[in-house]
Amino acid sequence: MISSDNIFRVLSGRASAEEREQVERWVALSKANREEFEDLRLLYRFSQDTLENFRDENFYERFEKIRCAATARLIRKERTNRAYRLGVALACFALAAFLWSHVMMINSHPASLKFRDEALRQVLPVVERRYGVEVLIEEDALKSCRFTGTFYRVDTPDDILHSISQAVKANLVVAGPGKYRLFGGGC
Question: Which domains does the chain have, with CATH numbers?
Fold first, then answer.
């Protein structure tokens, strides 16, 4: 923090080089300090107009310039504050939209898949629809194999199909993007 005495000495032209440097460093620290210094400078200029100067024909003109400068500063400050509030509001809206989209993505799949002693011919179509994949069963005997299992919040079909293939002692091969082959095994 800087003393008001130092600022007054700088404005009145009676400050030492060290005091001027100290005030310049303080002004450079932030926009708020810069604005406060400019406001103080305007007040100092106006305070120099004594009662004698009221008779001066340029007094009111000088006063109007100072008033206009102060008003312009207030308008700029309000615009800056308004822009800041708008920016914060937009950032909050973007964050809310981001969080909402992630919640919707998480909830787009039911929390779990449950199968209780069901044949693979009934289990695999559910997995195919849920994850948009295709599973080819090469041996008809595998279609009759029974499966019991529950999957909680599993995002990839690879994990589910791998668990099913192990449970029925079959082999699982990825045949391409979104395509799987199930073969061998024997329940």
Answer: 4-103 (no CATH), 112-183 (3.55.50.30)
